[in-house]
Design a protein that fits this description.
Largest sheet: 3 strands, antiparallel
Strand content: 25-35%
Order of helices and strands: HHEEEHEEH
Structural class: alpha+beta
CATH class: Alpha Beta
Strand order of the largest sheet: 1-2-3
């Protein structure tokens, strides 16, 4: 995941942490089977990133869009889940 994020514009954790503000973090728990963070981009205050990690089947059922290898944002529908 780190390599993917860095190849798509996240220059590094230290730089990103200094540039952005964490709005809310939902810690991992056994019911949700994932951890989530919402982050405000200080360069563009209209942008809020919500990032989740955890069990793939729980994370994926909450996804509506995905970032492709080419950097495009596309709908994450049933066909994309296959």
């Amino acid at each position: 995941m780190i390599k993917f994020l860095m190849s798509n514009g996240v220059d590094g954790f230290y730089e990103a942490n200094n540039r952005n503000t964490i709005l809310q973090t939902l810690p991992f728990n056994s019911k949700r089977k994932m951890q989530s963070s919402c982050i405000l981009d200080k360069e563009d205050p209209q942008v809020v990133w919500c990032i989740s990690q955890g069990a793939p089947d729980y994370v994926m059922k909450n996804c509506t869009q995905m970032l492709t290898e080419s950097g495009d944002i596309v709908e994450f529908d049933e066909a994309a889940q296959q």
